[in-house]
Specification:
- The chain is mainly β.
- 0% of the residues lie in helices and 45% in strands.
- The protein has no helices and 13 strands.
- The protein has strands at 16-20, 23-30, 41-45, 48-52, 67-71, 81-88, 93-99, 104-115, 123-127, 147-151, 155-157, 162-168, 177-184.
- It is elongated and about 65 Å long.
- The two termini are 42 Å apart.
């Protein structure tokens, strides 16, 4: 015997109707590759929850066109990539530091100043050719002080995109170094 579950007629024995921010969701439990999900059914998958926006067998994800994110869970170590990029006062103007993949989300950019820059007018930004400070701008990092600065741009690049470090060492600079840690998904 098969039961048809529709958003307006949930099966009261097995499906709970949950309201989240005014949306009605028929909770279907953990996502399964052997099931077909209908519009407004909600599932849990990899620590996050999703609502189907049409009939689907697609794997839920934040990039999926068949699913809407209800809540993103914490990312596991397997979900993220980290890249370390070292720089110093001799790196003037712009320098390619990383190229994103298709649909890559830059979650966090951490700039660590190991040796403070001693030049006058020193500045840093990190971004792409369209917006040079899309990920980090000069007001978010104090280059004249040793320290760690974490910025959370959570920006999605839909295609492979070169990421550049734009660094002005400042007049009279004789020292300054650090590294950049990019965390992405």
């Amino acid at each position: 015997m098969a039961l048809e579950i529709t958003p307006d007629k949930p099966n009261k024995l097995t499906n709970k109707v949950i309201s989240i921010n005014g949306l009605s969701v028929i909770w279907a439990g953990d996502w399964s590759s052997t099931k077909t999900y209908r519009k407004n059914q909600g599932v849990a998958y990899n620590g996050s929850s999703y609502k189907a926006n049409k009939t689907t067998t697609q794997v839920p994800s934040s990039e999926s066109v068949d699913w809407d994110v209800l809540a993103l869970g914490a990312l596991s170590a397997e979900d993220t990539l980290e890249k370390d990029i070292y720089f110093s006062y001799g790196d003037v103007n712009s320098r390619l530091i990383y190229t994103t993949g298709d649909n890559e989300i830059i979650l966090t950019v951490t700039v660590v100043i190991l040796t403070p820059f001693n030049g006058t007018g020193v500045s840093i930004s990190i971004g792409d050719s369209s917006v040079s400070d899309r990920l980090v701008n000069n007001t978010q990092v104090y280059l004249d002080q040793a320290g760690e600065y974490s910025i959370n741009p959570v920006y999605k690049y839909t295609s492979a995109t070169p990421i550049n470090l734009y660094l002005i060492q400042g007049t009279g600079a004789t020292q300054g170094s650090g590294y950049i840690l990019i965390e992405s998904k």
